[in-house]
Amino acid sequence: MERNPVVCPLCQSTGSSELFHRDTARSYYRCTLCHLTHIPPVQRLSLRAEREEYDKHQNSPDDVRYRAFLGRLFNPLHKRLLPDSRGLDFGSGPGPTLSLMFEEAGHRVSLYDPFYAPDTQSLRIQYDFITASEVVEHLHDPAADLALLWSLLLPGGWLGIMTKLALDKAAFSTWHYKKDPTHVCFFASETMRWLAGKWQTELLFIGDDVLLFKKPE
Fold first, then answer.
1. Which InterPro entries does its entry note (predicted)?
2. Which of 85, 151, 157, 161 could staple 81 via S-S, CB 3.0–4.6 A?
């Protein structure tokens, strides 16, 4: 199979990524070590074009359906938190809603988003929980970003991730999720288990698209 000499953006290995799928827009390589599927950096959007795509989003705290969608992450994570926990909504987007849901439940939540809430002060303290809802598939440097989030968790804290998980080659070829031009990394269940092994931590799969990692005490 055709190999990609570019370093895998998650496990940092060189020469481990094989061509997994190609369409008219992009090429997709899957790492044989961590199972991350990723596109070459030269095929990513510019930051300006990426921001223009995000500006099209119409997410709102008043949207009942959007709240129900976020509930897939909120509900299992909230029931595992102590009262008045402190959290970070990483990649909060143009219409922060998940953070509001946790605040309504009695928690304190800071925001960080490179486009819409870029104050890095929120990345200098530790938290009882961190959420990344529909975020990891956008990361250009998942190794650094996920390492940062893990470092910001207090012992016993929870990292909640929501993302669609990549399946086999046949399913990937017709998968709608890859058509979003801002999606550049696609995590498989094996990728999440690889992360849990790297962090030596507990991993819970909730439904089809929610992952909870607990940092050891």
1. SAM-dependent_MTases_sf
2. 85
